[in-house]
Amino acid sequence: MLKNLKEKATSALGDAAPLDMILNVLKKSPAPMKIGELAESTGLDKTIVDKAIKALKKDGRITSPERCKYTAT
Questions:
Q1: Which of 73, 3, 15 is nearest to 48 (CA)?
Q2: Residue range of the domain that includes 38
Q3: Which position has the higher pLDDT, 57 or 8?
């Protein structure tokens, strides 16, 4: 399932590294994070973070316990 996510994200994002970066930040965060916070923490553009969030959420790797905030599952 993760392999399929990386393949889809690679075609959408051009590289699977943003997915890993975002997932690692979310795993280390004690609280759910917003897209802007993730962009700041990873140094990625908000549009890339947004696309990665959608891919990770669709695969079930992250959830949204609050509106517009995300956490690793």
A1: 15
A2: 2-68
A3: 57
- Provide the token pair at 32: 């759910």
C-alpha span between 60 and 43 (Å, rounded) = 24
Question: How many structural domains is the chain composed of?
Answer: 1
pLDDT the model gives residue 11 = 47
11-30 tens-digit pLDDT: 445 557 889 999 999 999 99
Asked if residue 9 is part of any domain, the answer here is yes
Residue 44 placed within a domain: yes
Which of 11, 9, 12 shows the shortest CA–CA distance to 23?
Answer: 9
Helix axes 46-59, 2-13, angle to 10 degrees: 160
pTM score of the predicted model = 0.76
Average pLDDT over the chain, rounded to whole?
85
Is 55 contained in some domain?
yes
- Amino acid in the structure at residue 72: A
